[in-house]
C-alpha cells in the first residue's frame, strides 16, 4: 500500500526498521504511477504481478526478482489473488562502497532476474529475502545490523552475477575486459568531479580516448550516455544539499555543477518528476519546516 502520496511522489515511512520497509503483500490493489527516493524490490510468491517501469510493461512470475532504481516512475497492476514480497531500501547507505555505487548506476531504470532464465541466482536472491523477512518480523537484538548485512549480500550476489556474465561474454577479448574495468574508474571520476565544470573533452581525455571513441564505448559499457550519467550524478549531489534549508535553490544549482537554474530545474524534474523546491518540501521534517527567504524553482 502507499501510505503517503503527494502527486506522484511517495514518501516511504520506515516504521519497523531504519534499514528497509518490508511487506508480505497479498492485496489486489493497483498502484498508480508514482516514484520514491527509496529503491524497491518486488518478488512474487504466488500468481503474477504486472509492473510498468522505464516504458516497459513487465509481467512478473513467482520466483522472479525485480529491482527498481531510486527515483524511477512506476505503476503496478495486481491480480485478484496472489502474494509477493515488496521491499524498499535507501541506496545511499551503500554509496560509500565503490563496487555497489557502480552497480546501482547500471541498474537504472530496473534490473530483472527471471527464475526461468537464471534459476540458481533467482533462488539465492529469494532465500536472502526470506531471511530479511524473518529478521524484519522478529525481535532479535541487532536486527537492523543483520538486515543491512543481508541486503548487502543481496546486492553483492547481483553484482557478481553481472560481472560473471560480462566476463563470459567478453572472454574472447582481453581488451574488452580491460575496458570494462577502465570504465568503472571513469564512472568514479565523474561522480567525484561532477560538481566541477566537467566537459566531455575532459572526461574523454581522462579516459584516454578520442571524444568520438569514448562516447561510443561509454554507452556500450554503462548502458547510458556520458551526459546523462554526469547529470544524474549532479542531481544525486543536489538531493543531499536540498536537506540544508539555509541554501537557496540557486546556490544548490551552482554547487551541484549546473550552469543555470533553468537547466537544473528541468533536469531535476525530468529525473525525479518534481522541481527541486517541490522535492525539498516533500522531504522536509514537519517539526522543522522550511524557513528563510523563499527560493526559486
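^ Assign residues to that structure.
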Amino acid at each position: 500500500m502507499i501510505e503517503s502520496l503527494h502527486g506522484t511522489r511517495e514518501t516511504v515511512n520506515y516504521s519497523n526498521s531504519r534499514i528497509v520497509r518490508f511487506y508480505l503483500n497479498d492485496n489486489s490493489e493497483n498502484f498508480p504511477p508514482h516514484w520514491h527516493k527509496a529503491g524497491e524490490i518486488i518478488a512474487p510468491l504466488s500468481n503474477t504481478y504486472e509492473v510498468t517501469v522505464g516504458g516497459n510493461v513487465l509481467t512478473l512470475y513467482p520466483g522472479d526478482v525485480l529491482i527498481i532504481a531510486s527515483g524511477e516512475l512506476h505503476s503496478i497492476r495486481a491480480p485478484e489473488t496472489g502474494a509477493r514480497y515488496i521491499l524498499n531500501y535507501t541506496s545511499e547507505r551503500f554509496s560509500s562502497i565503490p563496487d555497489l555505487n557502480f552497480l546501482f548506476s547500471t541498474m537504472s531504470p530496473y534490473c530483472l532476474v527471471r527464475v526461468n532464465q537464471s534459476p540458481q541466482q533467482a533462488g539465492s536472491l529469494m532465500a536472502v529475502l526470506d531471511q530479511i523477512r524473518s529478521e524484519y518480523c522478529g525481535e532479535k537484538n541487532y536486527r537492523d545490523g543483520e538486515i543491512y548485512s543481508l541486503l548487502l549480500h543481496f546486492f553483492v550476489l547481483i553484482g557478481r552475477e553481472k560481472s560473471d556474465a560480462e566476463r563470459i561474454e567478453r572472454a574472447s577479448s582481453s581488451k574488452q575486459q580491460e575496458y570494462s574495468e577502465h570504465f568503472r574508474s571513469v564512472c568514479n571520476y565523474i561522480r567525484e568531479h561532477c560538481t566541477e565544470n566537467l566537459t566531455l573533452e575532459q572526461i574523454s581525455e581522462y579516459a584516454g580516448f578520442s571524444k568520438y571513441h569514448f562516447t561510443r564505448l561509454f554507452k556500450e559499457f554503462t548502458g547510458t550516455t556520458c551526459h546523462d550519467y554526469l547529470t544524474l550524478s549532479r542531481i544525486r549531489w543536489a538531493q543531499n544539499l536540498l536537506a540544508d534549508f539555509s541554501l537557496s535553490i540557486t546556490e544548490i544549482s551552482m554547487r551541484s555543477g549546473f550552469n543555470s537554474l533553468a537547466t537544473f530545474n528541468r533536469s531535476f524534474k525530468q529525473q525525479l518528476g518534481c522541481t527541486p523546491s517541490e522535492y525539498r518540501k516533500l522531504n522536509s521534517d514537519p517539526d522543522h519546516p522550511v524557513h528563510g527567504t523563499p527560493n526559486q524553482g
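The two ends are 31 Å apart (CA to CA).
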